[in-house]
Amino acid sequence: MATITRELLRKRSEHNECMISTMEELTLHQEELTGISPVLGQSCRDLKILLLQNNIIPRMENLHHLKSLEYLNLALNNIRRIEGLERAEFLNKLDLTINFIDVDDLETSIDNLVDRQHLADLYMMGNPCEQDWPGFKSYVIARLPQVKQLDGTEVTRAMRISALQQLPALVAELRVLAEERRGRRSVEEREKEEERARKEEKARRKAARAEAMEEGGADGAVVVEDVSDSEEEDEDELTGHTPEVREEIYREMAEEKLEKDKREKENQPKWRGEKEFEAEQKASVEKAREREERGQIRQCNEGKWRFRFDEESKPGYVLLDLSVQKHLSSSLIDVDVHPSYISIVIKSKVLRLILPADVESSTAKAERSKTTGHLLVTMKKVDENENMVALRAARKAREAEEREEGRRREEESRRREGAKLGAQMLEAVDLRITREGKKA
Predict the structure, then answer these.
(1) For the chain, is the Cβ count within 10 Å smaller at the N or the C terminus?
(2) For the sheet containing 317-322, what is the strand order?
(3) pTM more than 0.70
(4) How far apart are CA 318 and CA 370, in angstroms?
(5) Span 375-381, average pLDDT
């Protein structure tokens, strides 16, 4: 269930640049509103169109500030009487379709509309007074001469003359029906009070029985449960079209909506800030270091990071170039160099690599590029000549490949030059043959 608040008004004023005080049209339909709060009139005095249909509003109240109101829609609510429109001088259209205005409140309701001289369009279809009393339409037409359209039907001159002729009899009939309805309503109120008292008594007995069962279970005694009340629970369900039924339906809908929103909120991924990432990084680092202390040294690359070892650009050193996102905070990177392996935790992902040579872990240095974000770890070898044979072999292999590539390029260049020379010779022969043919 909801009420009208400034937050709700601001949310519904996006079409007016969130300016509440100057808003002329407001839509609050299907908001499960239980009433019209004073905030509406105090905050939105310039309203001309107010749409409040499909809520559970029981009374027309707190509308005295809306002097400029021209269209009010309260269809599908719990309204029992038309009231609160004394200052709505420019009201032109009023929609009260499917409410609970009965014959006992009809005369008072119409009295409150007599002075609304600009009221031209009135909707009251689906109310008990319209459904149960055949003279409803003629009575309203006769009492409200300014109304030009009633429940979507144009009021003609003939209809108005006929209604005025019937008015005295209709007034007398309405007052008799209203008195009968008040009598029935008082009986219904008494029955509701008795039903409410019966439910309270049943709830009290149920609570006492539950308490007795708990005490009996604690003492080890056998307790016999009376199921007579539980069999009557199904009979207590509200049925029919009444304000109480609508309130119960909306209450259930509101509870279901809250449960659904709660489930969706729980299923949504939780937002994590820098503190959360740092805490997760710390836990991952501790876990990785604990495994390494136990001797569980296994190569892994959980983050699929791109990396490259380099032993040639700086002789006697092992360089590790690691591709890291440029804008990743350095607080989410932890580097741990050991003589035979290196372990790096980046944003809770572990990169552990066996080094190509033993290094002095105490002199290792890690740096990040401000331009690319790359991480460069420089590690001095314990033996500067370690892997030198492999490095020389790799260098000779690269040089051989480069020579082979140069030889292929040279051969390709000679082939192109030969083809070009042959084409030129053919062109010269064709030109000579053409000249000799012209001389002949």
Answers:
(1) C
(2) 307-310, 317-322, 375-380, 365-368
(3) no
(4) 22
(5) 93
